[in-house]
């Protein structure tokens, strides 16, 4: 098997997150605040729609772009919301599938792609996978979008900017003004703006805003994984200018083929589910974390998603996480998501009891 492994795979690794999961596997009854998915059940109507589709023999391939009824519904919602002349949608194999196809469709070898540090782990890996050059924009200590910093990183090779609000791992949400400035900057410089809106349902203090409201060429990637706790079902969707969407579809045809068909029928049902009780629960859990830690930790209040990203006291993020794991508390070191090793990620998608136990351990560790 000499030289079988392609060189592109050496450009990134996944050892950091694996190390955390290896440590986790050794814990007997961990206080687990490391999980990147909701802790509620897939809503009953969504489960029923999936099993009904299976029983009705809707088990084959769908069209590459997704089943008609789901696409039509997404398209009419988008048309009502944005009123853009040229915005079309397709169903992808999760948000991850959409991100992968966006990179393959728009990033040539040597192209630079800007994103904010801390970042979702997949961004630099995907950029490298297609031969692009990841350019991180440090957003510490408040994790806000600073357009001057972005402008300073733009070169003739800049092809794409990725924005993610609400953000993983910080939970920070960008303001409408920040998103407008970023949208205008991308438009003025002919740079593709990709907006990862997977956490858009989880907004606690303000209404969700998308840069697509300000820049009609924004490529938006969204999905049902987080909003409806269906991460394993692999249904996402992408909307943007039709030339980009058609290119992504050409590639989807030869890679993912389509999103799982029964899960697409479930997605159609999911659009009409009222999530307000879950959002209220997560807002309360967010408040538990903020109230429980803010006097002892440097912590930006998360306006969305289900993450908080406090600064580790005394030590590095990685050293602090080892101390926490020694007390059976599972959290993720910030250096998984960042060039810096100063913070750690808490997921508050957990039971109140688990959160309370986690807060107690963190309070004891800070003293
Ligand atoms: N983007 C972000 C910011 C995420 O946190 C995640 C999931 N961790 C994804 C995309 C991928 O989600 P999906 O399950 O839809 O592929």
Automatic annotation (TrEMBL):
What cofactors does this protein use? pyridoxal 5'-phosphate
Gene Ontology biological process terms from the UniProt entry: amino acid metabolic process
Tell me which domain of life the UniProt entry assigns to the organism this sequence originates from. Answer: Bacteria
Q: Which UniProt keywords apply?
A: Aminotransferase, Pyridoxal phosphate, Transferase
Q: Which residues form the Aminotransferase class I/classII large domain?
A: 29-362
Query: Which terms does the record give in the GO molecular function aspect?
Result: pyridoxal phosphate binding; transaminase activity
Query: EC annotation?
Result: 2.6.1.-
Q: Which residues are listed as membrane-spanning? A: none
Give a Pfam family name. Aminotran_1_2
Q: Kindly report, in one word, the top-level EC class recorded for this enzyme.
A: transferase
Task: Identify its protein family.
Answer: Belongs to the class-I pyridoxal-phosphate-dependent aminotransferase family.
By what name is this protein known? Aminotransferase
